[in-house]
């Protein structure tokens, strides 16, 4: 029997997040600069290499696989990869195959995702206003995303909306977004903006809207009850008693979920980041390419997991660069 992946703090690693591309058809202001330089295609893991890497992790006890990016659905032939993972769902080794997407390609791929065994997807959407959407994503078009969400629901996929809370940007839309989701039976999670990337002159500290304040706003209209349940992810949930709606809050700066952290991340070039909020990483592409022997790759994975830190190092209170992670969110896929 293979030993499960345990980190130095005895946390079992069951959740793998894989960024399949650094490219994106949007340029969200908190994520990328307008003139992002992307990696040469030859540096990316091939779909076959991604398959081998993910399959090795699944053999080592990973039960949940989330595909992210950049925008995962702009990678050519990505459905081939999703379909190749279906065998692990069929065998029961993989419990969940899922994706985090900006929604732009969903109208095209929703049914294929459902056919591959995907049940739930997360769609990132910060505003329901067309003009504001164009501003925040720079290149995105809202109607295309809304069409994608409709297609996902029509294909039977459960949709969760990820909404980054931004002061002075979507504060005024809080109740519109909440009721829009309630009407469509779409789950909703708010995310605090994180200090990542060196993104031009964007002022992430000025955009910071604490979810504590956002919750305070909700309390003006609803009775908000804390729920004890956890999804195995960083979100904490509340219920709005008047509508019965469940809303998630992800406050990456609090350490409240680090102690039960179950995840690691792979970039599209095969680096493993054992913590979203730390720079430390190891290379898995070299061992992947060096030999067909999976034992070699497994040993490299175990060595990397052996370096997983206890928690993150984000800090808004430090004004200097050492309080931020300089890598872009699109590099590790959030
Ligand atoms: N600090 C921190 N933030 C995380 C972590 N995982 C996810 N997040 C944040 O949560 C955001 C949403 O993540 P998603 O890709 O939707 O996945 P999720 O919320 O973990 O997924 P489910 O719980 O399966 O729905 C990410 O973009 C990050 O901002 C984590 O391990 N640490
Ligand atoms: C990097 S994107 C990758 C997947 C896909 N392109 C999407 O947007 O859903 C994953 C998530 O990271 C979030 N994100 C990006 N930059 C962020 C930041 N600086 N702070 C908080 N969340 C961020 C996005 O809102 C999105 O929900
Ligand atoms: S948040 Fe997602 S959609 Fe927006 S620029 Fe980053 S990778 Fe692209
Ligand atoms: S910040 Fe790091 S340790 Fe904490 S939950 Fe996220 S990945 Fe895990």
TrEMBL record:
Descriptive protein name: GTP 3',8-cyclase
Residues where S-adenosyl-L-methionine binds: 30, 70, 124, 194
Binding positions (GTP): 17, 66, 100, 160, 263-265
SUPFAM superfamilies noted in UniProt: Radical SAM enzymes
Residues holding [4Fe-4S] cluster 2: 258, 261, 275
Location of the Radical SAM core domain: 8-234
Cofactor(s) annotated in UniProt: [4Fe-4S] cluster
Coiled-coil annotated spans: none
The keyword Nuclease is annotated on this UniProt entry: no
Gene3D superfamilies found in the cross-reference section: Aldolase class I
Keyword Iron: yes
Cofactor remark from the record: Binds 2 [4Fe-4S] clusters. Binds 1 [4Fe-4S] cluster coordinated with 3 cysteines and an exchangeable S-adenosyl-L-methionine and 1 [4Fe-4S] cluster coordinated with 3 cysteines and the GTP-derived substrate.
NCBIfam families: moaA
Taxon lineage: Bacteria, Pseudomonadati, Pseudomonadota, Alphaproteobacteria, Rhodobacterales
Protein task: Catalyzes the cyclization of GTP to (8S)-3',8-cyclo-7,8-dihydroguanosine 5'-triphosphate.
Binding site for [4Fe-4S] cluster 1: 24, 28, 31
Keyword entries, A-Z: 4Fe-4S, GTP-binding, Iron, Iron-sulfur, Lyase, Metal-binding, Molybdenum cofactor biosynthesis, Nucleotide-binding, S-adenosyl-L-methionine
Assembly mode: Monomer and homodimer.
Pathway: Cofactor biosynthesis; molybdopterin biosynthesis
Family matches, as HAMAP family: MoaA_B
Catalytic reaction equation(s): GTP + AH2 + S-adenosyl-L-methionine = (8S)-3',8-cyclo-7,8-dihydroguanosine 5'-triphosphate + 5'-deoxyadenosine + L-methionine + A + H(+)
Entry EC no(s): 4.1.99.22
Similarity comment: family membership: Belongs to the radical SAM superfamily. MoaA family.
């Amino acid at each position: 029997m293979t030993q499960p992946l345990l980190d130095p703090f005895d946390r079992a690693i069951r959740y793998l997040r894989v960024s399949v591309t650094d490219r994106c058809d949007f340029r969200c202001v908190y994520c990328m600069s307008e003139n992002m330089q992307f990696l040469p295609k030859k540096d990316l893991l091939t779909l076959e290499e991604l398959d081998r890497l993910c399959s090795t992790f699944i053999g080592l006890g990973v039960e949940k696989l989330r595909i992210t990016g950049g925008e995962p659905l702009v990678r050519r032939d990505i459905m081939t990869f999703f379909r190749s993972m279906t065998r692990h769902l069929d065998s029961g080794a993989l419990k969940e195959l899922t994706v985090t997407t900006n929604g732009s390609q969903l109208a095209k791929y929703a049914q294929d995702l459902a056919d591959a065994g995907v049940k739930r997807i997360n769609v990132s959407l910060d505003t329901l206003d067309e003009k504001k959407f164009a501003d925040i994503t720079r290149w995105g078009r809202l109607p295309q995303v809304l069409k994608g969400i409709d297609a996902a629901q029509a294909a039977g996929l459960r949709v969760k909306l990820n909404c980054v809370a931004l002061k002075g940007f979507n504060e005024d839309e809080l109740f519109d977004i909440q009721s829009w989701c309630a009407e469509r039976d779409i789950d909703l999670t708010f995310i605090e903006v994180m200090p990542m990337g060196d993104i031009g002159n964007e002022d992430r500290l000025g955009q910071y809207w604490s979810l504590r304040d956002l919750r305070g706003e909700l309390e003006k209209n609803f009775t908000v009850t804390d729920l004890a349940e956890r999804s195995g992810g960083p979100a904490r949930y509340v219920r709005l008693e008047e509508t019965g709606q469940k809303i998630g809050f992800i406050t990456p700066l609090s350490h409240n979920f680090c102690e039960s952290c179950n995840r690691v991340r792979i970039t599209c070039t095969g680096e493993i980041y054992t913590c979203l909020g730390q720079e430390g990483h190891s290379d898995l592409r070299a061992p992947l390419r060096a030999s067909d022997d999976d034992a070699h790759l497994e040993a490299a994975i175990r060595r990397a997991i052996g370096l997983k830190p206890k928690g993150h190092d984000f800090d808004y209170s430090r004004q200097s660069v050492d309080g931020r992670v300089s890598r872009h969110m699109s590099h590790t896929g959030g």
